[in-house]
Amino acid sequence: MTTLEAPAPPTPPTPTPSLRPKAVARTGLYALLAANAAVVAGLFAAAGFDDNALILLGRLTGLYGALIMAFQLVLVARLPWLDRRIGMDRLTSWHRWTGFGLLWTLLAHAVFITYGYAQAENLPVVTQFAELATTVDGVLRAIVALLLIMMVGAVSVRAARRRLAYETWHFIHLYTYLAVVLAFGHQLAAGRTFAGSPFARAYWWTLWGLALGSVVLGRFLLPLWRNLRHRFRVTAVVPESDSVVSVYITGRHLDRLPARAGQFFLWRFLAKDRWWQANPFSLSAAPDGRSLRLTAKALGPGSAGLRHIQPGTRVFAEGPYGAFTTMHQRTPNAVLVAGGVGVTPVRALLEDMAGHVVVLYRVRAHGDAVLFGELAQLAHARGAVLHLLTGPNDAQSEHGPLLGAANLAALVPDIRSRDVFVCGPPPMTDAVLRGLRELDVPRDQIHAERFSLAS
């Protein structure tokens, strides 16, 4: 283990915000969902209860399925206000789990409606299903939408997701938008609440308009506007080692780009053989208003090909994304824990972080320590402490596992009074989080970045 330490210069304490941005955004989302759930319940009641119990359950699950589908669109719209406060990794996780909830809700809707009408008409279930599909306007569209959602759900199961290239999974996931359009068409044609009152029609049109509008804004219009405004272009490609390369990017009016240290972009390099690939890479230096830098290790075809990009190549960048920033710092001092490619946002954060900082950099061997020279220089310049923790995954210190609770407490005795920012491979991140829980570090002082994307 290597430790570099410099005397800490006096730094003004970071004011603790009275309201946590993450808590505000999360509470706002929950309140919005609860308010809409209450409105849907009111619309359901206003439509009357003259059907049998199964049909009523089918109607109710259909209405809540529509609400969940609209909520899902908001979660993956990549709206800057939400993303900066909650983070794409957490929003993606919520999107995934509500997706499975949506699938079961829509399946329940189909089953209850079919069995309910079969009971009312005294017909076999299969006959009733065929009759609904062929005679009721909008039902066939709903069946196609459900089949598309089932297909997307199947490829989103972890076992299937790992076997697919991201581009393939993303292409299949785009069928969700077709399912949304078909489901809304079914609701227009057969939805009882649409025919119930002008208020119901206005509500559903507004809900779907805002949900789809948020996707168009966050996923298409905002990235297009930013790229037209900034005109990103590669200025230099610098090998950092045999397997690591840094790409420097400049553009117009970068001082107006709302990027912060710790965030990442989806980079699309507009070269002949790469324009169709979008890869997520974090900024490896704090934005200075003049240029951006990303640093990547050759872990796959996308990152390995970066060293062959020519200066002058145009870049289409989506972002910035991520909540791994000083916006969420709660205490005057901090601990930054990095491993693997997680060192890139940590290196940028070290430039931007206020107060006294301790950096724990976990690698298998000293030669794997990407950007270590820069980290050491930054640590010395700002009076931070830098610990390089080396060894195999099961390496032990005199206090136990390198990233276990005892060693964390030995390296940072006042860790309970600091914010802790963790970014690295999932096993490393999980080990650190376990250690922090054992040390009773307050949850609102723990910030972990997990790289994950949704369609």
UniProtKB/TrEMBL annotation:
Subcellular location: Membrane
Biased composition annotated in UniProt, kind: Pro residues: 7-18
Predominant localisation class: membrane
Domain FAD-binding FR-type as annotated: residue spans: 227-327
SUPFAM superfamilies hit by this protein: Ferredoxin reductase-like, C-terminal NADP-linked domain (SSF52343), Riboflavin synthase domain-like (SSF63380)
Keywords: 2Fe-2S, FAD, Flavoprotein, Iron, Iron-sulfur, Membrane, Metal-binding, Oxidoreductase, Transmembrane, Transmembrane helix
One Pfam match: Ferric_reduct
Gene3D superfamilies: Nucleotide-binding domain of ferredoxin-NADP reductase (FNR) module, Translation factors
Record flagged with keyword Transmembrane helix: yes
GO cellular component: membrane
Superkingdom, taxonomy of origin: Bacteria
Cofactor(s) named in the record: FAD
Molecular function as annotated in GO: 2 iron, 2 sulfur cluster binding; flavin adenine dinucleotide binding; metal ion binding; oxidoreductase activity
UniProt xrefs under InterPro entries: FAD-bd_FR_type, Fe3_Rdtase_TM_dom, FNR_nucleotide-bd, MRET, OxRdtase_FAD/NAD-bd, Riboflavin_synthase-like_b-brl
Keyword Repeat: no
PROSITE patterns assigned: FAD_FR
Transmembrane segments: 29-49, 55-76, 97-118, 138-160, 172-190, 202-222
Bilayer topology annotation: Multi-pass membrane protein
Region: Disordered, residue numbers: 1-20
UniProt-listed CDD domains: FNR_like_3
Protein name as catalogued: Putative ferric reductase
